[in-house]
Design brief:
Structural class: alpha/beta
Radius of gyration: 19 Å
Order of helices and strands: EHEHEHEHEHEHHE
CATH topology of the largest domain: Rossmann fold
Strand order of the largest sheet: 3-2-1-4-5-6-7
CATH superfamily of the largest domain: NAD(P)-binding Rossmann-like Domain
Strand content: 5-15%
Helix content: 40-55%
CATH class of the largest domain: Alpha Beta
CATH architecture of the largest domain: 3-Layer(aba) Sandwich
Number of domains: 2
Length: about 280
Amino acid sequence: MSRPAGRLEGRVAIVTGASPNIGGAIARGFAEEGANVVCTDVTDASAEACAATIEEVGGQALSVVGDVTDPDHAADVVRRAEERWGRVDVLVNNAVWFNQKGLLTMPLEDYRRQLDIILGGAFIFTRAVAASMIRAGTPGSIINILSTAAWQGQPGNIGYSTGKSGLINFTRSAAMELAQHDIRVNGLTPTATQPADPEVAQRMAEMMAAAKASPGEWPMDFTGQFPMGRLPTPRDYVPAAVLLAGDDSAMITGSNITIDGGATAKYWPWTPHGA
């Protein structure tokens, strides 16, 4: 018996930063809806693991290793997608460098590198993919992965917060410029995420517990301040990504969907789960 057609049947998507966390989950979710996916990452293991999970569900995938700040890498990814499937329909800009340092502790070269990966990578890949869509004369969807740290001031994480915040208006500006080509550009805002891998999730829980028990300069209580009963998992972001990638969001551009369990809606002095 054949598989029923998905909402992204036959479309071609590129996902940057295709680690087993958010990027990998979105890539697999796209494949489950019928898309062919190019998984790109700076490490072989992540790119290949992403492609393997897509093949597990009967999808087609390519893994490409490279640095998102390299225009030649972006051109190569687009070329390989076009050679394999004829076009590109969807781009997810997810590549990031988690380098949590503050204003007074972060080396300037680290700050510049982090911004180059988050903002420069999105610029380079958006330009390369948009050019491909315009050449082909096909509509498309570009999704920039933001963060609740883009909308709130997080101490001790200056580069990440600045880069993700910059993506908010990058999304709006690119959406306005590409609207004439029927290319939509939107943001998707996740938050602190419960890893899908049980071992990684356990290590994360231990780190959070230790940080709460012995807080440093910037104490963070993610679970205690979270309105919902649990943090989201990578799979919780997939339905919104599929929506933005497909035809059901044909009139959504320059916008954002937030999946944060109410974190950014919460009134700041309220502690949801006790003192």
